[in-house]
Every structure is written in structure tokens, then in C-alpha cells.
Design brief:
By secondary structure, this protein is mainly beta. It is built from no helices and 11 strands. 0% of the residues lie in helices and 61% in strands. The relative contact order is 0.33.
């Protein structure tokens, strides 16, 4: 099993910044990709940003130029720096990891951390 522990969510005013962190631990041989999804009330979950083991990144169009995903492979940790936040970014942000374990490859999700942006 793999556990994902998130931190860094909270309340911020429009134009402000937050940094999310997610640390993976457990039965990990390697991590193929890590990233963040978000789900706002009444909306479907959407990909925010993803980073692969090779360092390739993918962002939602709505966050390009404002959010930056990075990773510390030695710590199995991924970060999401969120700048110039706006009320449209308000959502529960969940960490995602695609992990190769001792027996198989599986996807894991964190519990979610709330981000609220006030206008």
C-alpha cells in the first residue's frame, strides 16, 4: 500500500499564492507520475498539473502561467506552487500518484486539501 499525505491548502485572497505539498510513502519501487487534480462543488474532477518521472509536465489551460508543479524524487514528494489565485481556483485539491509497487502498477489518491480563494 501507498499513502499520500497532502498539506498546504487554505484560505487566500484573490491574487495571492499557496503552495501544496504531497509526500508518498509505503511500498514504492518507483513513481511513474505525480500530480494534482481538483474538484469544485457541482463540477467534475479535473487535472490541474502532472509531472512524470522523466520530468515532463502537463497543465490545465486555466492554470498555465500561474501554477508550477515540481518534484523531489529523493523524497517522493510533489509540490504545486499556485500564484495569482482567483475565485475560480476554489476547489478540493487531491494528490495523485502512479506507482510501481513490488507486484503491480497502481494509481493512488490523497484525501484532498481545500483551497478557497476569496474575491
Amino acid at each position: 500500500q501507498v499513502q499520500l499525505v497532502e498539506s498546504g491548502g487554505g484560505l487566500v485572497q484573490a491574487g495571492g499564492s499557496l503552495r501544496l505539498s504531497c509526500a508518498a510513502s509505503g511500498s514504492i519501487v518507483s513513481i511513474n507520475a505525480m500530480g494534482w487534480y481538483r474538484q469544485a462543488p457541482g463540477k467534475q474532477r479535473e487535472l490541474v498539473a502532472l509531472i512524470t518521472s522523466g520530468g515532463s509536465t502537463n497543465y490545465a489551460d486555466s492554470v498555465k502561467g500561474r501554477f508550477t508543479i515540481s518534484r523531489d524524487s529523493a523524497k517522493n514528494t510533489v509540490y504545486l506552487q499556485m500564484n495569482n489565485l482567483n475565485p475560480g481556483d476554489t476547489a478540493a485539491y487531491s494528490c495523485y500518484a502512479r506507482v510501481t509497487g513490488p507486484e503491480r502498477i497502481r494509481s493512488y489518491w490523497g484525501q484532498g486539501t481545500p483551497v478557497t480563494v476569496s474575491s
